[in-house]
Amino acid sequence: MSVWYKQLTADKPVVVSSRIRLARNVKGVPFPKRMSDSQKTEFLDSVKKLLDGVSLEGVGKLKYFNLSDIPAEEQAAMVERHVISPAFAQKLGPRGLVISQDETLSIMLLEEDHIRIQALFGGAQLDAAFSVAIKAEQLLSKGLTLAFDEQLGYLTECPTNLGTGLRASVMLHLPVMESAGQISVLADSVSKIGLTVRGMYGEGSGSKGGLYQISNQVTLGISEAAAIENLKAITNQITDREMSLRSQMDSIAVEDSVYRALGILKFSRSLSSEEMMKLISRVKLGVSMGILKEIDPAVPMTVLIETQAATLQKNYGIMTPKDRDVLRAKIIRELF
User: Among candidates 164, 165, 121, 131, which has minimal Cα distance to 19?
Assistant: First the structure.
């Protein structure tokens, strides 16, 4: 199981996770949409020989999987844990996945590009994530020649990834900015400096539990270091804004909302995923503001991830939505 959401601490109440993704392709090989199945199989075999069982500094031993060998329920649960992208899980045909035991590092093979390296850490750890991603790229480069142009940088299927091929992102918990109607203003502001605001599961996804992803859009004409530093600076500004709004809230109203949410989570006999996420967002707010001192800062995100529909079905078997809601409530009652 992934551990990124169990790394959260009280000193970083707004930043939930940090992710670095590198898009890479192999020189002389057609992009995935134009590859034949035999070419895809040959490519996957070459990566398997290169990475399967190899240890990488900082993450340990890597394991290769053919995605078709991973049950659909587990693939869906991996999406919920942010280990793989929704597009990768839904895609058909030969695909491969290289992953570290703690899921800090995952390498999606034949998603949009030949290689998508992802390093995912809990909290504000963009530099650590970038370090791991680069080490993975260096390991791949020992056996593969990556497609690179002196003027354009790394060549990618989508022109928006040309250059560094880097997507740096942070997931932020912004419940007060959301309730104040400031997310659209935030999205407009950051778009002017080459950043974008997306939902919990990236492009095309909506907000869940007050969680938003902020990531860079510009990959051409800017270095990886500059892109990451820019994102870190904006993250700090957004964090300051959220914390400022929290400090201005009516303390009694906040405590009442937090304890009501905790009470429902403690005693409910049935909880939908949507209701759970709204309630756990309030509890997370209460933990970060020091109202619920007895609850570990990692618990709210652990609840949010581990009681999602696909994760429940992976762990407990296929069930009806009603049965899932009952099980979700039972697990949360026992946890709290």
Answer: 121
What is each CA distance from 202 to 121, 170, 199, 206, 212, in whole angstroms?
16, 11, 5, 8, 8
Residue whose tokens read 């912004």: 174
- 206-229: per-residue pLDDT in tens? 678 999 999 999 999 899 999 999
In the predicted structure, residue 326 carries a pLDDT above the cut 90:
yes
pTM: 0.92
Q: Token match 């529909």: residue? A: 309
Strand ranges (DSSP E) for 3-129? 15-24, 55-56, 60-66, 96-100, 105-109, 115-122
**283-294 burial: b if 16+ Cβ within 10 Å, else e:** bbbbbbbebbee
Q: Sign of the C-alpha dihedral, residues 135, 138, 144, 150?
A: positive
List, as own/partner pairs, every contact residues 323-327 make where C-beta atoms lie below 8 angstroms and the sequence separation is at least 24, other chains included: 324/273, 325/270, 325/271, 325/272, 326/269, 326/270
Using CA atoms of 155, 158, 163, 168 in order, give the dihedral in degrees to the nearest 10.
Answer: -130
pLDDT in tens, 57-68: 889 999 999 999
Amino acid letter for position 161: N
Q: Is the Cβ–Cβ distance between 310 and 80 less than 8 Å?
A: yes
Distance separating alpha carbons of residues 58 and 51, to the nearest angstrom: 15
pLDDT value for 256: 98
CB atoms within 10 A of CB 92: 6
